[in-house]
Every structure is written in structure tokens, then in C-alpha cells.
Amino acid sequence: MTVLPPSRTVTGPPPGTRVETLPSVPGLGGLYVRGAAGSAAAQIPGRTTATTLPAVAHRVEGVRVDPGHLTSYQHLLGETGSDALPSGFCHVLAFPVATAVMVRTDFPLPLLGMVHVANAASVLRPVHLGDALDVTAWTQDLRAHRRGTQLDVCAEIAVDGEVAWRGISTYLAKGVHLVGGAESSDAESSVTADASDQESSGEVGASVVWRLSADVGRAYGAVSGDRNPIHMSALSAKAFGFPRAIAHGMYTAARALADVGARRGPTYDWTVEFAKPVLLPGRVDVTYTTGADGAWTYAGRSSSGRPHLAGTVIPNA
Amino acid sequence: MTTSPTPSSPREAYVLGGNRIPFGKVGGAYARSSNQDMLTAALDGLVARYGLQGERLGEIVGGAVLKHSKDFNLVRESALGTALDPRTPAFDLQQACATGLEAVITVSNKIRLGQIESAIAGGVDSTSDAPVAVSPGLRRALLTAARARDLPTRLKAFAKVRPADLAPDAPRTDEPRTGLSMGEHQAVTTARWGITREAQDEIALRSHHNLAASYERGFQDDLVTPYRGLVRDQILRPDTSAEKLGKLSPVFGKRLDHMPTMTAGNSTPLSDGASAVLLGSADWAAARNLPLLARVVDAETAAVDFVHGHEGLLMAPVHAVARLLTRQGLTLGDLDLVEIHEAFASVVLTTQAAWADDDYCRTELGLPGALGTIDPAKVNVNGSSLAAGHPFAATGGRIVAQTAKQLAELQAASPAAGPFRALVSICAAGGLGVAAILESVPTTEGDPR
Q: Positions of the region Disordered (chain A) (predicted)?
């Protein structure tokens, strides 16, 4: 049996977290401006930075999904046009609320330059178009990593007071060493190990090729609101040290989730670990394997075999 | 599921249930939705309602009238998006507005022959997301350029493109051979049979009131699954009245000698939607504890020569029904329900006027005399396309599912009587018409095989 992902072991914000209710979902454009300003301020020598996460959760209540937004997302990711929200779409809904926590002045890490290294999300009960959604997001578990500092950005979506979806995004602030203590292991090594495990196990497998056009970053930016410059164009990506624009990690993970499709069932866990970024335009070869328990594992690689992402989609029977 | 050897004599095929999404206005609730989105939603609802998750069905057959070329395998692709066993085969079928009913007939014939045990017949159409093609001139240039091996040849291909070629080709609903729209054709037929404006508005009024009443009494609860925020058909006007309908200006037949009578109120608007019908053998249904709503008795397709003006474009069902009833040894009086697709209100009236005309029935239908008349209380009892809308290929599934359910209700209300019988008649572009007979299943019936 597969180990439960963190999205099923976390149960709400840590004790002592103060909940701040926002009047509406904040616009990501403004948040990025604040995030960029914060990131620049963090570079100023001698500026004192906090070394703990703000014990604050942000909440927006009664969020309604726009049907056109959902349809655009589903068409882009290859999801069916169901009224049930795909887990990746729930992530998109919660993302601005989570980002609002990360641009707070008491948040200790620079928003730009943080790397999304892993994600786990659980649909605990189906969430539908038309439901009034209460979205809560917070950060937790700031920890030392060999290459910097890691933390989890957590989000929950509740319907009628019951948590229906939970997502845990793990970020790495490269080269920022805020906290001491035992270093956590590197996600990339487990990605590669997982992928090779699957292939030797002889389970049912499928192969899919994604041919990603140069504008995939802009297209996912439009449906997710995540218009980080590294995804938008080769020029803006170069400013951040990438040779070309890179695909959003969550775009690739959500494509994998859509490929598994209806076989994930109405409630499911979905995990991903990101390795090398996917440069655009680009091609990703993805393999899917499943065993008797109905759990799917997937791994996406470049044509030269370098790992891009790997993860699981596990139906909750 | 094992396939038993093909029986030597046909057995029966039954309608077991149906599901559709509420029909939307063009540019309305489903403006952004594709045919595949909507058909998948209709199938998903059917799968959920009848517990078909993981089932390998015999076949799924359906189609769309306005279809993008990339959707060549529309039904199979839609099926792959559902919780059905991915090993369920499917194919696309297209017979204009009769697509949905022809799909029902096709799969029921396969069930009757023992080739399959279960099936879904469906249909979908979007006039909001209709395919727009490039002009023939631009298409030739693009294809020539794609085949070219060097840049000069490629450029030369485009040199032939004229500015007019850059205008896109929107889909047209005009008849290719006459250049007349369906409404203009029917305006001629309406005038020929002397159908009044008042009679047409009365049909439209009844359609809205009957459909609204069917929603009110909960009849549609297990036939319709809300989608994209739409709970009922977007075109439905429960509060419409003869006065409101009477104020609308005519839109078709304005160039005829007769006073034009066809308005936006008594003609079906363009719409978006999808429907699906579950069919199966008695054994397959019994194994899943699914009640038999209605037996598919027989069907007939006809075509008429409308091109040379001999017959009206939408009059083919008149011929199909005459042949079908004759073959079955039935008369109009043997029918308990009659569904005449309301492409236009006047279709319901010209169809019945033709059947009641002694001379026409002798000369055109080859009958000994008039086919007869129908009690208006038996016609389109739960409303039809004027009120629900008419996403072309989705209409057949809507009518078959709700008619089968209505037959089962009649049977349940009078267990000792029956079987109750329904006629479904659908006109289609190209001078086509499809008719089918459904029959309720008396509870006292032994092994229906």
C-alpha cells in the first residue's frame, strides 16, 4: 500500500494560527508586484529577516467558480468538461490566497526565486461548480535543506464547513539558510528512484507524449493567474537564468492527472515531485503504471531520459 | 460479459433510461463548452444514475450534426472521458436532426440480433461552438504549401489566394440543393396546407406549458442533470401566453403570396445540448435490476423529393409513419402517445393535416384512405423542441427517453391494461424523416424474450 501523502496527514492550520479573513480572492498581479518588491528588499545587505513563518492563515469565504474559467482550464489541461472540479483547478483557486501569505512583510523568504519542488493534494469529497467555497491558506514547517530552506504552503477548500480539498505545496528557497537543524532529503533523488522502481515492477504501463508549444506557459498563466516571468517568454525567463521559458510544474502535473482521467474516481490523492524544468517548446515522454490496487504512478522525462516530474494518482475507494 | 450465440429469431430491445443536460440558448450557458464536453456530461450523468461505472457496454452510438473535423471520433472520445470501461466501443453516426433517433434504432437492432446486450444512443450539438472552415481557395493554398518542398513553391501557393478567400466559411443550415433555409421550405409547406398563425402559436404555447408542467411534477428529475449552472432548459418560458406569442413578427415566408405565419415563437431556436439513452436486452437489465421502460417495436426511415417541389422538405416522417403503421398493422387510433418533433410548430400541424387528408393519403402514401386524426391531448404531452430547444442530434435522445418514461408511467397507473404504445416522428434536413414505435412493458408479461 502506498504511503499517505501529506495532504491527507495534515489536518488544518497548526495550533495557535490566527485566521485573517480577506474580503475577496486577491489579484495575483498585485501580489507579484509586492512579492518582487519584497524579494528585492531581501537582497539589501544588513536587512534583518524573520526566521519564523507567520502564524497566520488567510481565508476567503464563499468563493464561486466562474463556469467559463473552469471550461478554459479543462480544455487547456485535457480534462473532461465535468462540473466536478479537477484537483488541479482547486489548486489554482487556492493559489492566490496562499500567495497572499507569502508576500506578507513578516514572511521570511523572497517570493521570486522560490522553487516549487513537490505538491500533494487530496480531493476528500467532490467539489462542484456552484458550490460556495471557503478557501484557507497558511505556511508551515520551515526547515533546513542542503540547498537552502524548505517550507510547506498549505491550502484547504471547505464546502458547507467540511474540508473537501487539501493541497500541500513544498517550496525551496535556494541558497537561503535561515534555520539550523537536520537537513531534509532532496526531492530529485526520490523522483529518479520512484521512476526506475516502476519500470522494473512489470505493472500495466502506458506511454503518452506531450508536445508542448512555446505559448503553454502563457496559456497556463492565463487560466491559473500564475504569470511568473519564468513561464511567460524566453526573454523574461532569461532574466531569471533560464535559457528559455519553462512550463509551470503544476501544468505538467495537472496534465498527468488528466491523462489518468476518470479512472481516478470521484475522490483521490495526487502527488508530484518536480525535477528538471521543462523548457518550452518541448517534448515530455510520460509513462503511467498501475497495479492491482488501482493506484497510478507516473513519470515524465525528456527524450534524453532526464527526469522532469514523477508522482502518483491514487483513487480513494 | 459473455456473448451468447446469435439467436435464430430476433429478441427484444428495451429502453432502460436516459439522461440529458438542460438545453442552452445559442451563446448561453454552454457558450464555451464543446460538443465533447456536453456529450461527456450527458454520458457521465447516465453512468452515475444507472451505476454503470466500470461496465463494458456493447456499444455507444451517437453523433453531432455540426462537427469539427478534429472530432471525427467524437463519441468514442467522449466515452473515454467517462467512468465506463474504456473497452466500450463506439462510433459516430450522422443523419441531420434524426441522428439521435437513428442511433436508438441502430443499437436496438444490434441488441435484437443478439450482437450486443447493452448500448447507449446519444447525440450532441453546439451552435455556439460551430465549426468555421477556411474558404476553398485558402484551403487549397494551405494544402499545396504544406506539400511544397521549398520556399518558392510555398510562396507561389499563396500567390493565388485572393482577399475574398480570407473570409471564413461559417456553417449554413440552408439546403445545399435549393439554397432555401429550412424555415423558408417549411413556410411553403405551411401555406400549402393552409395552417394558420393561431394554430401554430397554440402548439408553441402548449409545448412551453407542457414542458414546464413536466418539470413542476418532477417528471424531468431523473431525465435531466444540471450542467454549468443550468438546471432547466434555457429557452423554456413557463409564463408565455397567446398574447405574447401573437405579438411576434413573422420571420419565414415573407416573400410568399400568403400571409407569413412563422415567427421566432413558433419556430425552434438554435441551441446547445446533449442527450443519452440507455438500452439493453431483458437479461442485461434484469441482471442489473433495471426496470424495462419501453420496448423498441419497429422503426422506418423515409425520404421525399423536396428538391423538385413535389413534397415539402419536412414531410418525410408522414411517409415513414404511414409505412411503419401499415407494416405493424396499426392505426393512429392504436397510439396512446404521439411525439412529433417541433422543428417548427407548423410541422406538427402539416404532418397531422396530411394524415387526415383522404386524397393525399391515397395518392401520395398509397393508402386506401385517410390515415386518420389524433387526439391533441396525446401529442407532445411533456413538451417538445419549441420549449426545450433543439440541439440537432440531441433531440432524438430527449424524445425517446421521456417517451419511454411516460409509457412506463401509463403502464404503472393501469397495470391490467396495455401495452401502451407511442409513436416518435422526427423530420430532418435533406428531406429525411424517421419514425419509431415504442411500447410499454406489461408487468404480467413473462419472459420477454
A: 1-20
